[in-house]
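Blinded run. Sample ID left blank on purpose so nobody reads anything into the name before looking at the predicted structure. Input follows.
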Amino acid sequence: MAIKNYGWALTLGAVVLVSQLVSAAERRELPDFAESGAADELSRQAVGELVDAFKESWSAQDVAAHIALFAEDAEWINAYARMFRGTEELAVFLETRLFPNFAPRVSREEMANSRLISIRYLGDSAAVVHMATDGSRGESAIPGELLRRTHLHLVIEKQQDEWLIVHTAIMDARG
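Blinded prediction complete.
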């Protein structure tokens, strides 16, 4: 009988632990900024400048400046699973579909609200950047929240002494 009660207690404990972990994963609180991996100071500075240029060009809806940050064969996917490979296709999408469908104030708002979550350096030649922003580019899936949370993930690579975005993934919670 004692063994059955002990097994039940372990099961209950596991259920409580899992529910707490799931609950923590569903919170909207953003973690403090974390930086990991090894890179020299010049690489760190270059990655920071690229992130700043990304935010500036997005905020201004400046397609030419934004596309200049990407490698020619870059891949890009957004929250609607629109995928582009190469800067030519992406430039057309940004110019004719994405930016025209949102007031410039929305893009400015997104970048003003953006926050770096993490940068993981992969030596002196690559980095993964995670940013999050709250903006009015659509309704929030979370009741009571006015702004929609969007996460941007950038994979940045040093190519012939120039740091460029080689992959972008944009996702948000739509419910």
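Unblinding after everyone has recorded impressions. The chain has five helices and seven strands.
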